[in-house]
Write a structure and sequence with these properties.
Layout (H helix, E strand, L loop, with lengths): L1 E2 L22 H24 L4 H28 L1 E7 L5 E7 L10 H27 L6 H50 L5
């Protein structure tokens, strides 16, 4: 696991609108909720409005879930909250997970509404899919369980990755501040013990 926020300035090339009432990324907000809402809606109402086969509906839901996973992981997290997580393969062939956050000194600031929208969407949909798990189990719709498991895994992976980004960067800042002040106190204590005391 690697947590690095020293080299990142997500969106530094962007020019955000000066009007505080205008959302900087309206299409990104729509994409953040659009694909996941579409996947859940198709899942809930596919039997009512469609006479298509189970296989075609199942594949369509999986495609919506995969597009949602990619969009949230690669676009909306970076633009709306300045967080990004990804996997890289080292020269030795090992997988290394990287959790990144926008530099605190960045001139780009998150819009409060976009930040709330991002986190509400990120947390709400895994909960809704968890409810669909119980609905499928107790409603005896066992054929939909693989679809629900895929939805839970993809939504849960994004939630886990972004929570690691958010709290790991805070932990690193706290750890850096603690070690800095501990070093200062140690150097002050060693200086005071080395100074000769007058009689």
């Amino acid at each position: 696991m690697n947590i690095d926020d020293s080299s990142l300035d997500f969106g530094a090339e962007e020019r955000l609108p000066q009007d505080k009432n205008k959302l900087p990324h309206p299409l990104t907000c729509l994409a953040h909720l659009g694909f996941r809402t579409a996947a859940l809606t198709v899942f809930l109402f596919c039997g009512i409005f469609s006479s298509s086969s189970f296989i075609s509906i199942f594949i369509f839901i999986l495609l919506l879930l995969c597009v949602d996973f990619w969009v949230v992981k690669n676009i909306t997290g970076r633009l709306l909250v300045g967080l990004r997580w990804w996997n890289k393969v080292t020269e030795e062939g090992a997988n290394e997970w990287v959790y990144e956050s926008r530099k605190p000194t960045s001139s780009i600031k998150n819009h409060p509404f976009e930040t709330k929208l991002f986190w509400i969407g990120l947390i709400l949909f895994p909960v809704l899919w968890f409810l669909m798990l119980f609905s499928s189990l107790f409603g005896l719709h066992i054929q939909w369980l693989p679809c629900v498991f895929v939805a839970l895994m993809l939504n849960g992976a994004n939630l886990f990755g972004y929570l690691r980004c958010k709290f790991s960067s805070r932990k690193d800042l706290t750890g850096a501040a603690t070690s800095y002040f501990a070093g200062k106190m140690f150097s002050m204590a060693s200086e005071s013990s080395n100074t000769p005391q007058s009689a």
